[in-house]
Amino acid sequence: MPHAHSGVHRSAHIQKKRELRRDEILHAALNAFRERGYHATTLDDIALRLGMRKTALYHYFPDKEAILYECHRASLGELDRILRGTSRLKSVAERLRAVVREHVRIMIETLQGSPLAFEVTTLSPARQNEIISARDRYERRLRRMIEHGIKDGSFRAVDPKLATFAILGAINWIARWYRPEGKSQAPEVGAEFADHLVGGLERT
Amino acid sequence: MPHAHSGVHRSAHIQKKRELRRDEILHAALNAFRERGYHATTLDDIALRLGMRKTALYHYFPDKEAILYECHRASLGELDRILRGTSRLKSVAERLRAVVREHVRIMIETLQGSPLAFEVTTLSPARQNEIISARDRYERRLRRMIEHGIKDGSFRAVDPKLATFAILGAINWIARWYRPEGKSQAPEVGAEFADHLVGGLERT
């Protein structure tokens, strides 16, 4: 029994190590995508950043497209959790502010300001469909949040679709100007964007 | 003298026709860029849309890059005129609203919702520098407009750089969702974006 127990421990430990390594690879890949662009980045570039052999990288991801797919999946999963997490907040404006702040954090911290939102067409058709559906779902939920705010009188009678596009555009555009060495980091950008983009919808 | 006079008329007429043709080419090119992407578009595609021979196209533009450059130059020139035009408006908020509305109009009508802002790196280094400088100049002027609004008390104490990025992001992102056959056209998008993006800066 103690033997089996330590076996479980060991495999949990190995699993944990594997996940950490996986995250490091995604992190390095996203930095490479930001700096050189997705198309110019090779698996060698990513391996080099990690001081890893390319053959070792293959244990985690078969190719660059699998890495891109995983980055999309991970960030859309995070967005989904965030949306569900905000349901405990009372007002729509508070909920939308939290979503904007967290989405900005994902753009800057999880995605390292990498222009992922600009790169969907490079995925295989099946993966492209999956990512686009998840993104559409997220968009629709933002739109419904705004519709809700209009109904309960917190927001002006805006066009919910256009308001959603304005918010997502401002956030996605971060990939065009963000620099890790710059002074604007996630908490500041998130707070400013939340006030600007949600404040602009509120009734005054 | 009457002879010379009619000569002037004729050359003015030819000049005018040439300009119209040039505009048609830019228009067709922008539509092709939106539909197929810049890289996938060929000069043949553009000529085909105009029912023109490719050799006739060469009288106007030597290559695709020259067309892209001209689209950038024309839209940045328009933005410049707009900024100067708004100086007659009294309040900063009114001026910024007019700039947002007009920039949206350029994105949708002049640029046909083409993702031009996403394509600078394909230009030659000299042209790239010119376009990036003009774009930076425009950005700086928007930023100063916001700084001015903070000083005179019309705007909250936002970070002018981040507020400018949010506005430009929302506008540039139009290229990602705009469809000429859709119901959201320039006047509506411009009015909604102006209220949303400028309203979000105003003191309440």
What would you say about this model in short?
Chain A has helices spanning 2-36, 43-50, 54-57, 64-85, 92-110, 125-151, 160-172, 174-177, 186-199. Chain A is an all-alpha fold and 204 residues long.
Describe the structure.
By secondary structure, chain A is an all-alpha fold. Chain A has a single domain (2-199), classed as Tetracycline Repressor, domain 2 (Orthogonal Bundle), CATH 1.10.357. Chain A is 72% helix and 0% strand. The first copy, chain A, has nine helices and no strands. Chain A has helices at 2-36, 43-50, 54-57, 64-85, 92-110, 125-151, 160-172, 174-177, 186-199. In chain A, helix 1 packs across helix 2 (43-50), helix 5 runs antiparallel to helix 9 and helix 6 packs across helix 7 (160-172). The N and C termini of chain A lie far apart (67 Å). The model of chain A has no long low-confidence stretch (mean pLDDT 90). Chain A binds chain B through residues 118, 156, 158-159, 161-163, 165-174, 176-177, 184, 188-189, 192-193, 195-202, 204, and chain B through 118, 156, 158-159, 161-163, 165-174, 176-177, 184, 188-189, 192-193, 195-202, 204.
